[in-house]
What does this fold into?
Amino acid sequence: MTISHICGYPRIGDDRQLKRATEAYWQGDMSRSELEEVGRELRRENWQIQRQSGLDLVTVGDFAFYDQVLNTSLLLGVVPERFNAEDEIARGEIDLDTTFRMARGRAPSGQPAAACEMTKYFDTNYHYLVPELHADQHFRLASTRLFSEVEEARADGHAVKVVLTGPLSWLWLGKERAGESLDRLSLLDGVLDVYAEVLQRLAAQGVEWVQLDEPALALDLPGNWKAAYERAYFRLQATPVKLLVAAYFGALGDNLSLALGLPVDGLHVDAVRAPGEVDLLVDRLLPHKVLSVGAIDGRNIWRTDLAEVRDRLTSVAQRLGDRLWIAPSCSLLHVPVDLARETELDAELKSWLAFARQKLDETVTLARLLGGRATDEDESRLQASTTALASRRTSPRIHRPEVAERLAGLTAADSQRASRYPRRAEAQRRVLGLPLFPTTTIGSFPQTVEIRAARRRHRAGELSEADYAAQMKAEIAEAVRVQEKLGLDMLVHGEAERNDMVEYFGEQLDGYAFTRFGWVQSYGSRCVKPPILYGDVSRPRAMTVTWSAYAQSLTAAPMKGMLTGPVTMLQWAFVRDDQARAVTCRQVALALRDEVRDLEQAGIRAIQIDEPALREGLPLRRSEWAGYLNWAVEAFRLSSSGVSDTTQIHTHMCYSEFNDIINAIAALDADVITIETSRSNMELLDAFRDFDYPNEIGPGVYDIHSPNLPDIDWMVALMEKAAERISLERLWVNPDCGLKTRHWEEVRPALANMVEAAKVLRRRH
Ligand code: GLN
Ligand code: ZN
It folds into this structure.
C-alpha cells in the first residue's frame, strides 16, 4: 500500500480564523482560553480534513500560534534572557505570552522587550523567528504543547505522524546573539539531548513516525555541517520512533549521498523541484527505508497533471512497493487554503488550480493510483485533471501569439540605454537642474484612513469611479503641496491610488488573476494574497500615466513616475509553471517598458522602477545564481531602456545585503538607486565603493520603520560617511523606503529635517 501524507497544512484557517483570534487576544478582546480553543478547533478541523480526504496519516506539530521555528525554540528552552523566562523554562512550560513577546516584543502580560529577529524561511515568503543563540546556551525541554496536540489527535482517533523542525536545520536558521561570535555546531550535543527526550516522549505516547524537516539539505552546506548531519542522526537513531527526514525546496545535489546514508527510516524529497533525482534515490535506497516522494507542488497553486506524474512514478512504485510514500513537495503552509471558497473566480481558470485542500485530494488519488487501489472517484479525478491540463495547454487566454511574437522580435539593443551613464548623467543634469545632494522620497505617502475608506467604498460600488478619482487627485495635490513646501527636489505623487505595489499593476495587466480568499501566512497573524500570474502578460492600456501627468502638472519640480519592476511582479505572485520564469519575466518587462515610454511621452523626466524583491529571488544554490541574475537584470534593463538619455531611471531596493550581488546591481544600469542603509551606518556602501559602482546612489538616511523623528546632525553625519565612499555629485538624500505605513504628523517633520540636512551638506561641500 502506498502511504499518503502531507508535510504540513496551513494553520490560518479558511477564513483567517487564527489571525482574527490572535489579534483579538493581543488587543484584549479575547481571553486566553478562548484563543486556545480557537487553536484546538483549527487543529481538529485540519486533522479531520486530512482524514476525510483519505490520507493515511494526519500530521501533528504543524500548528503554531506564531511560527513553527519559534515553537521548536520553545521546545528546546531557547528564550533570550531579556524575556525573563527562567522560571518558565525551569518549570518546563513557556508561557504563551512569552511566545508572543519573543515574536512581537509585547503581549497582554509580561514586560515588553525587543522582539526576536524575523527573516524569510529559505526562498519562501514565509518569515520565521530567528533562534537567538549564545556560547553557553542551555537546552532544556520547555514546552509540552506538542505532546498535548498529539493527545488531542489520538483522542480523535487519528493515525498520527508528528512533524518537527530538524535539529540541524533549526541550528542553521539560528544566529548568534548580537555582537558575539559562535560556532553553532558547538551547541549540537545540547540540542540533540532535548530532541532525544522529545522523541522518547512521543514514542511513549504511541507515535510511530516523526518527520524531521531538514530543508537545509537543499543548500550548499559547509563540510562540517555535512559531518554534523551524520553525527546528529547517528545519535537520534537510538530513539524508539521511526524517523522520516524531510528535505525540500530543491534538489539534494551534493547532499544526496549524505541524505541517503543517514541512519533513519525514511527520506522525503522534493520531486517537484528535483524530479530528476527520484530514480537515483530509488536505485540507492537501502531496503529497509521508505521514500516519500513529494510529487504535488507545495509551493504553487497549479493543478497537478495526475496522469503525467502517475506515469513518471509507475516504475518507482513497482520497485519500492509499500516503501513508496506520496506527499506534496513541502508543507502546504505556502499555498492558500481552499479553492472551493473562490466562488467568483472564472470557472476555466479555477479548473487549472489546486489550493491546500485540493492538494490533499491529489495526494490521496496519486497514492491510490500508484498503489493499485484506485477508486471510481480517483479515476474521475484523473480524468478531470487531464481535461483541465489540456485546456490549460491550449487556452487562448494563456497563450497569446502576439505576446510571443513581440518577445521574439527583441534584440540586444532593446536592453541597452542609448548612451553610457556618464553621458546620460550630463544630459540629465542639464534637464533636471538639481542641486548637489538632491532630496527625494521612495514613492508612497501615508495611506490614511480616508484613502482606505475611499478605496473600500469604491470597490463596494458605493463611490463612483469619478468621485474616487477626484478624491485620489485631491490626495495627490495635497502631497505635491506638502513636498513643495518642504522644499524637496524631486517629487513623487504619493501612490494614494495603490492598494499594493504588485496588486495595483497586476489588476491592470492581462495575464494576472486575483482571488478573494487566497491568503497565505507571511508571518504571525500577517497574511498576504498573492496574485496568480497565469497567462501571457500584456498591457491593455497605460496604468499610471494619468496620475503621474496630473501630479507633474501641479509643479515645476521633476515628478518621479513610479512602477513596480518585473522581477518583483513575479516574485510576489504565484507564477505559471508551464514556461520558464525568465520568459514570463520578459513579458512583464515588456509591458512595463511600454508604460515607461508612455510616462516619458507624457513629460515625466524621472521614472523609478522598484525592485525590492530582486535579492530574495536568488536561488538557494549558488551555482544557480548567475543564471537567475542574468535574466532578472536583463528584464529590468528591458523595462527601463526604451527612453532617451535625458530621462532618469531610478530603482529602489529595501535591504542591506549587496555584497553578493553588487555586479548585478551595477548591471541594472539604473541612473539612480535608492537603498536601505540607515541601520547599517552606511557601512553597506563599502560594497559599492569597493566595486567602483559608477552610477548615482541615494543611501537611505533614516529608518521609516521607526516612529522616531530623525535628527538633522545625525543624518548629516550619515551622509558624510556616505561621502567618504561615494563621490559627492553622485549622492542623493532620501529615506530608507516608502512612507505609506507612517502618519503625516511623523512624515512632515522627518522630511523637513532631511531637507535641512541636505542644506547643511550643500553649505559644507
Ligand atoms: N515605491 C514603493 C513605496 O514607496 C516602494 C515600496 C518598497 O520598496 N517595498 O511604497
Ligand atoms: Zn523599500
Remarks:
- The pocket of zinc ion (ligand 2) is lined by residues 442, 612, 652, 654, 737-738 (CB under 6 Å).
- The radius of gyration is 27 Å.
